[in-house]
Write a structure and sequence with these properties.
Elements: E1 10-22, E2 25-37, E3 43-44, H1 47-58, E4 66-70
Parallel strand pairs: 2-4
Antiparallel strand pairs: 1-2, 2-3
The chain binds zinc ion (ZN).
Length: 73
């Protein structure tokens, strides 16, 4: 897979990604499998991963300023 910004290789890694779900709430999803560009800061998710992240974010408590959840496939 090639980066659509710079054309470098995208490599598969597991990392923690923060998502801003509303004005005051950040959710950090841990152990998320993504593709990270080796040449720039671009990264992308596979569709099933993105769908699962959406489900996780739907369950988050919006009263909290920071939530940390673990991605589980
Ligand atoms: Zn790139």
């Amino acid at each position: 897979m090639k980066c659509n910004v710079c054309g470098s290789n995208m490599k598969s890694i597991v990392t923690n990604i923060p998502f801003k779900v509303d004005q005051s709430t950040i959710v950090i999803v841990q152990d998320l499998p993504i593709y990270q560009c080796e040449g720039c800061t671009e990264y992308l998710f596979e569709d099933p991963v993105l769908k699962r992240v959406d489900e996780i974010l739907d369950t988050v408590n919006l009263a909290a300023e920071l939530e940390i959840v673990r991605y589980a496939a």
